[in-house]
Amino acid sequence: MHAMGPPVVPSTASLARVFRAASVARVQPKKKPRSAWRRLVYPAPNACWQLDATEHVLTRGRRCVIFQLIDDHSRYAVASRVARGETVKDAIAVFDTAVVAHGVPQRLLSDNGLALNRPGAGLRPAPSMSATDVPPRGPSEDPATVSELLTHQPSPMS
């Protein structure tokens, strides 16, 4: 409209109102106002971490998997790892890296991707566990790792 030269250009909302009145545009259902958008935020750092792995195609068709572990309070990436495939070993390694740097989270969420849920592998799910199951440690001791924690868990019931 600026190119056509009118001195005053109508707003987008004014044009939409005129088009709806003339039945030229579809009426959309009332949308939520932006003030209604609310992001779920955990109350403190290390309250909940989320683990995810994404496959990425490199040059010449080679593939890699990027593991990302994010603190759900601040959306801070507490650890990342690039691997050749989505394996349990790499999932544990990225978790161990984050625990060494930031301590043990209260909760760990995952989408149960291939690294944690191999279909047809004959594996049973491990018992659920949270950081409250971890014995307290002094500041001078090494942080617990996933493999240490799982070693001390009772085996799943058949």
List the helices and strands and how they pair.
Layout: H1 12-21, E1 49-57, E2 63-71, E3 77-83, H2 88-102, E4 108-110, H3 146-151
Parallel strand pairs: 1-4
Antiparallel strand pairs: 1-2, 2-3
Walk me through the structure.
By secondary structure, the chain is an alpha+beta fold. The protein is 20% helix and 18% strand. It is built from three helices and four strands. The protein starts with 11 loop residues before the first helix and ends in a 7-residue tail after the last helix.
In short:
The chain is α+β, with helices and mostly antiparallel strands and 158 residues long.
Judging from the principal axes of the Cα atoms, what is the shape?
elongated
Distance between the termini: 73 Å
Number of helices: 3
Largest sheet: 4 strands, mixed
Question: Spans of 5+ residues with little confidence (pLDDT < 50)?
Answer: 125-147
Reading the helices and strands in chain order gives: HEEEHEH
* Rounded average pLDDT: 74
Rg (C-alpha, Å): 25 Å
Structural class computed from helices and strand pairing: alpha+beta
Q: Give the tally of β-strands.
A: 4
Q: Percent of residues in helical segments?
A: 10-25%
Beta content comes to 15-25%
Main sheet: strand order: 3-2-1-4
